[in-house]
Prior knowledge:
alpha/beta; Rossmann fold; 14 helices; single chain; six-stranded parallel beta sheet; globular
Amino acid sequence: MRHASTRAFGLVTQRAPTQNARVRVGIDTSFVVPRATGIGVYARLLVESFGRCTPQKGFYCYGGEISASAPNVTHRSTHPWKPWRYAARLATQLYADRVDVFHAVANFLAPVWLPCPFVVTLHDLIPFTHPETVSRKHRLLARTWTPFTLRRARRIICVSPATARDVVAQFPRVQPKVRVVLNGVRTLAAPLDAIARVRAAFELPRDYIVAVSAIEPRKNFALLAEVWRSSQGELPPLVVAGQRWHAAESIEREADGKVRFLGFVPDADLGPLIAGATLFVFPSRAEGFGYPPLEAMRLGVPVVAAGAGALPELLDDGARLLSPDDAPAWRSEIVRLLRDGTARRELALRGLGVAGRFDMERCARETVAVYEEAMRDARPF
Length: 381
């Protein structure tokens, strides 16, 4: 049965219950943009998987359009680039579409006014656990809105046990609402001819090392710069694919030419870029999940990563885990793997096994189970 009462917003008023109707789920897809990373990728993969594995439910996407042709997926434009207009139009559209539950996919970003209960996904609590690594504006927004959003949400999806622990440590009263649903990981296409094409396009040698990450302080590029600076030409080139975020200019300047920053690389080139590399490195100081190393592992590329945040429990023995503060250990391990092809192959095989645990359809089914639980919760919203 649909929800009998709603919270008024504009013309949104009381709604009568409907018997025996298909459950309708609204999803914020405003982060699904042409250069989507992280949250945008998460939303797109969820919707595409919903179309395949949950045909008994209807899904309404508000914001960016997803190329999912499933008959149970409907797209709505809501002007996501203007937040207050988006919030107002979203509430009205959710009511018109008779949505039963809404999924706010982007941490604390949930509209104040909604005519139905909602579920929120928390990807990390970096502004709380590592405030020095984010901008002052981001820190202020997160600290203002996160408690409000978590208090209102019927259920809170955390993408890893590490994120769930951070949430409960910061906001212990929301613990009964927290559910862990591990993200699914996509397999990027990387045909052999594309690997050769991308290597030529970026003028890369046969051996190179790659990192995929937004350019921001917590990603710890200073460590990589130190490793390459101390190698005195012993290591192959290091290339980084990722958008420029907070403090990117100073990070690139401090790298002093030891790291080659490629900027954003589209998926059609990203898979071949990763697959063609000898090693993948990921020294991040804090991650709520960590898509890039798992995507590299799915492509059979050996991974060296920081043993920080969610990475140890997710990457398990599929990656070589090192301290994010020990540059000599990173240099030593990279040199060892470059010289030992057998060790690289063994690490890559373990990585393939670990990455295979992160199935997207499993993620979609578990997410739908959280929606259903939220709808059964009779608390006022």
